[in-house]
Automatic annotation (TrEMBL), chain B:
This is Monovalent cation/H+ antiporter subunit C. It is a multi-pass membrane protein. Keywords: Cell membrane, Membrane, Transmembrane, Transmembrane helix. PANTHER family: ANTIPORTER SUBUNIT MNHC2-RELATED. It comes from Methanolobus chelungpuianus. It is found in: Cell membrane. InterPro entries: CPA3_antiporter_subunitC, NUOK/Mnh_C1-like. Pfam families: Oxidored_q2 (PF00420). GO terms for cellular component: plasma membrane. The chain crosses the membrane at residues 6-22, 29-51, 98-119.
Length: 773, 138
């Protein structure tokens, strides 16, 4: 899909966004196809093998949960793509933008319909990567790059933990197919009783928490707001951050009902909910407020999924699922509204806004609906799921008993009050109050219908689901909850339950929220003071320290490892060579110098070797290149004599020819360069090099002397084969030649290839001329 | 191979080659690498040679029957293949020679390449001193 995009762009020019929206629509229709089946409690599957040896296959599985996610992703996708048409300026690289968006949508859909854990992981990381690209879409803004890097490190890092968790599950059950595990009661029982249960759970929850910005991993989401606003609406409120929630819901049947599950998921959710709600006070950036509210709303769902118990497993799950849908509607809507406001006022600072209701009446109405829904005001859909949240909190507190009976509902109410406060602030700060015109452009006008329609539609949904919840519940929530709970769920949601404890909690929430809002400035100021005083006490600074520390350390490491000049590398290599060869020899031989020395040598050999040593020394001490080169070719010719002495005529001939050629090349080169090169060797360098050279020399000597001392070859030499078969098999009498061209012909071919490559390299080097001349 | 003088010489050439490779001047480095390959070739060939061995060229119709392993006979100080039935093999090891022949040719290729690099470097940078070359211009 994404691949066709550039082609489509050439046809459509600036209307490429509509094409993308059409793709999303097709996805929506495809997903919707599955809806009737899912409502009837069936599932849709399809698979083909991918890495069969590892039991990894590309298999797709759709149940209520997947379909609900699919609908949210593609539905919001359509709206976002349409909205972007107007939001993104025409000068941008639109093709890139929509390509990433579509890639993201594809991987998200792939993820929720994956039935295989490994496949799920692959798509999971794909969403991380596309998210990274979208956050960093404005490449030249440092903050964009920072936010993108942060999100990638945190979410993808969490993904690695998740993969480890899946692998543990695979070890326990012997399969990576989640569906198989889900449909197999005995397997679930096996997992719950297994010793690896807790590690697997912890690892997977880390992955989910990182993706959904829960707990200490929340830090990436506020920075991700550097992305274009439609992206924030799509990825960082409605879909991608829900992936962690999806994962929690997906593994719910496997892990839930245990104490560890409640502590990890529920506890994490409650703490994050309170912390994020509290931190939202400090934000002055309208998108920052929304980011923190997203974190806290996601934490609601986490908490609710964590609230499961054996007696009433369904309450938390259905509430969370319902809230998931509702949150997608109102939060995406709010982001789009924030986008409009930022677009019109050219700022995102809430302190500079106010009184925009006159200029942007429609935007105001839409934003107010969404924000009130978030605050949990009836008759909007946020109210319904909030009520269910309170109910399930009461339930859970009741089941746990003891101090929890009051603690959990109290925490829920406090979280709700925070939510209420920042929701009201969003409306009040932007649309109500006095207009601070000095910061704002003179003429603002309502955006075009293209930009207004998507949020309007979402706001309409907010109202509709609020007033007539039964349809959404029946077609979407019930199947989804059934998919999580693995049993049929019948749910009745209505606006008026009568006067219940939850309603009372809602009323308390509103009062507390209003009170909090009244003290808004004071709380924010206090937070500012605290963070100014203890800058090192935040997860953000921890992250920064780790990342910057890592890059700083690696730079230092590279400076040590890659100093530039040649000699340090060589010295390092030589020292390692010394270590590796000297130590075993000493260990095997026991003594360094063998006692059996053979000093009886013929005269001519002594002369020959003496000359070699002399000539070699000559290369080192002679100043002029010409002299040194004559010395080195003398060594070469002497070596060919040594070969004759060692009964190797072929080598001697070859060595003669090669040495002649090498000498010619040497001479040709030094014609072109100055005749001498005075290297000023300091004493310390000389001492160092002499030391290393002597060490090498002595090591080689010890090796050679020991090689002739009683080391019995552990296997028969290959040479006998060649000696015996040279004539019968190859018909050649010169064994060396036969080996080269017959028995080991490929080696020789390789040698010829090396020669050719060197020749080509030389030719190209000679042809290349830099332009600087 | 148990020829102490040869061993000493090879070891010395190794040492000198190492010293040359550590120089800053690339031409001297090239000389050092040439020396290093000479030393290595001599070492490898010498491992397969022994006193009284014959050149690995078969003169008769077929090779002398062999079998057994090279063992070190300390009494004579000669590394020689000892055949179970007591017939000594007549040839030095042909395999090491074949390998060395390949090595000789390849070392020529690398040396030539390195030298041309030196030459081009001098053309571009006006020096063959590696420590002066901070940045390779294209």
């Amino acid at each position: 899909m994404a691949a066709i995009l550039p082609a489509a762009e050439r046809v459509l020019k600036n209307r490429v966004g509509w094409y993308a929206a059409a793709v999303a629509l097709i996805c929506l229709l495809l997903v919707a196809q599955a809806l009737p089946a899912v409502v009837n409690g069936e599932t849709v599957t399809g698979s083909f093998p991918w890495i069969p040896s590892l039991q990894v296959e590309l298999s797709f599985y759709g149940d209520g949960l997947s379909v609900m996610f699919g609908l949210i992703v593609s539905g919001i996708g359509i709206l976002i793509m349409s909205y972007s048409n107007e939001y993104m300026s025409k000068r941008e690289d639109l093709s890139r933008y929509y390509r990433y968006l579509l890639m993201f949508m594809g991987s998200m859909l792939g993820m929720v319909f994956s039935s295989n854990a490994i496949q799920l992981f692959v798509f999971w990381e794909l969403t991380s990567i596309t998210s990274f690209m979208l956050i960093g879409y404005w490449r030249n803004r440092p903050m964009s790059v920072y936010g993108a890097t942060k999100s990638l490190l945190v979410t993808a890092g969490g993904g690695i933990f998740m993969l480890a968790g899946f692998l543990l599950l695979g070890i326990i059950t012997g399969t990576f197919d989640i569906v198989t595990i889900l449909q197999n009661g005995s397997m679930i029982a096996l997992i719950k009783g297994h010793e690896l249960f807790l590690p697997a759970l912890v690892l997977i929850i880390i992955g989910a928490a990182a993706k959904s910005a829960q707990g200490p991993f929340y830090i990436w989401l506020p920075n991700a707001m550097e992305a274009p606003t439609p992206v924030s609406a799509f990825l960082h409120s409605a879909t991608m951050v829900k992936a962690g929630i999806y994962l929690v819901a997906r593994i719910h049947p496997i892990f839930s009902g245990t104490e560890a599950w409640f502590v990890l998921v529920g506890g994490l959710g409650i703490i994050t909910m309170l912390a994020a709600g509290f931190l939202a006070f400090r934000q002055t950036d309208i998108k920052g407020i929304l980011a923190y509210s997203t974190i806290s709303q996601l934490a609601y769902m986490m908490a609710m999924y964590g609230y499961t118990s054996y007696q009433y497993p369904g309450i938390g799950v259905t509430a969370a699922t319902f809230h998931l849908l509702n949150h997608a509607t109102f939060k995406a809507c709010l982001f789009l509204v924030a986008g409009i406001v930022a677009h019109e006022t050219a700022t995102r600072d809430i302190t500079k806004m106010g009184g925009l209701r006159k200029e942007l009446p429609a935007t105001f109405i839409i934003g107010a609906i969404a924000a009130l829904s978030m605050a949990g005001v009836p008759p909007l859909n946020g109210f319904l799921s909030k009520e269910m949240f309170y109910e399930s909190s009461l339930e859970m507190g009741h089941i746990l008993g003891g101090p929890f009976e009051y603690l959990i509902p109290a925490a829920a109410v406090l979280g709700g009050a925070f939510t209420f406060a920042y929701s009201i602030r969003f409306i009040d700060g932007i649309f109500l109050g006095k207009r601070r015109s000095e910061h704002l452009p003179k003429h603002m006008h309502e955006p075009t219908p293209v930009m207004l329609f998507p949020p309007a539609l979402l706001a309409a949904l907010v109202i509709l689901i609020g007033i007539f919840p039964s349809a959404a519940v029946h077609y979407i929530i019930e199947p989804a909850a059934s998919g999580i709970l693995l049993e049929d769920v019948q749910l009745h949601v209505s606006l008026w339950h009568g006067f219940t404890a939850a309603l009372l909690m809602t009323i308390i929430t509103f009062i507390a929220g209003a009170a909090l809002y009244a003290r808004y400035g004071a709380i924010a100021a206090w937070q500012d003071r605290v963070s100014a005083r203890y800058p090192a006490w935040s997860f953000n600074s921890l992250y920064d320290r780790i990342v910057n520390g890592a890059s700083g350390k690696s730079t230092a490491f590279a400076k040590v490892m890659q100093p530039g000049p040649l000699s340090p590398y060589l010295i390092a290599m030589l020292l390692i060579f010394l270590l590796l060869s000297a130590v075993p020899v000493i260990m095997i031989a026991g003594t360094l110098i063998p006692t059996e020395l053979n000093l009886e040598v013929p005269m001519y050999e002594a002369v020959l070797l003496g000359l070699i040593i002399l000539a070699s020394l000559g290369t080192a001490v002679l100043r002029k290149y010409l002299h040194a080169i004559i010395a080195v070719s003398a060594v070469g010719y002497l070596v060919s004599l040594v070969f004759i002495y060692l009964q190797a005529p072929d080598l001697a001939i070859t060595q003669l020819l090669v040495e002649t050629l090498a000498t010619i090349i040497f001479l040709l080169v030094i014609i072109k360069v100055p005749q001498t090169f005075r290297e000023k060797i300091t004493r310390s360098v000389l001492a160092r090099d002499l030391l290393i050279s002597s060490a090498v020399s002595i090591t080689v000597l010890i090796l050679l002397l020991n090689a002739s001392q009683g080391i019995v070859s552990p296997f028969e030499s290959l040479s006998y084969y060649f000696i015996e078969n040279s004539v019968p098999l190859a018909g050649g009498h010169n064994m060396v030649n036969v080996i080269l061209v017959d028995f080991r012909g490929y080696d020789t071919l390789g040698e010829i290839v090396v020669l050719c490559l060197a020749g080509l390299g030389v030719y190209n080097l000679l042809k290349s001329r830099s332009d600087s001349k | 191979m148990n020829d102490t003088l040869l061993s000493v010489s090879i070891a010395l050439v190794f040492g000198i080659a190492t010293f040359m490779i550590l120089r800053r001047d690339l031409i001297r480095v090239a000389i050092g690498i040439t020396l290093l390959s000479h030393a290595t070739n001599m070492l490898i060939v010498s491992t397969g040679a022994f006193l009284g061995g014959r050149t690995p060229i078969i003169t008769g119709d077929k090779a002398v029957s062999t079998g057994g392993t090279f063992i070190d006979d300390l009494a004579t100080g000669i590394l020689a293949p000892v055949i179970p039935d007591g017939i000594e093999i007549a040839y030095v090891d042909p395999l090491v020679q074949a390998l060395t022949l390949t090595a000789i040719v390849i070392s020529l290729a690398t040396t030539a390449f390195l030298l041309i690099l030196c030459y081009r470097l001098y053309q571009e940078q006006g020096t063959t001193d590696v420590s002066e070359i901070r940045r390779l211009k294209g």
